[in-house]
Amino acid sequence: MIDFEVLGDPKALKRHRMGRGFNYDPSAGDKATFAQIAQVKAPTVPLNVALFVQITFYFARPKHHYGTGKNSNKLKPNVGNYHTSKPDIDNLEKFVFDALTGIFWKDDSYISHVMSAKVYTEGTPKTVVYIKEAELPPRHDKT
Length: 143
What we know:
The protein is of the alpha+beta class.
């Protein structure tokens, strides 16, 4: 079992760009920084077994979630805990998968089970990652 957190705003994978005869990855620098921070918890050899990965993306609450004046430190009653705007969760996941490929797993195709959430935090924005060998879920088919 491996778990770690990377402080800072969660990053989404940006689409590759075409230049004059070359491809450019606009997320390359962010992925390298993420991987460097996570490297402390990396296995000695990249994993090559079926993996379960759980990721929680913690976003800072926007100011409009809070009251005004003497209530400026209180949340409004109608705001939720889940982050339901951009970036999309699949782009956030893909950023993490790509950043950790070759370090935590041989290839992200080894990830067979994923559980992710985008939530608001009152604290520091961060990405929390939990990795373990996948276990088979109960069978739901009749074969």
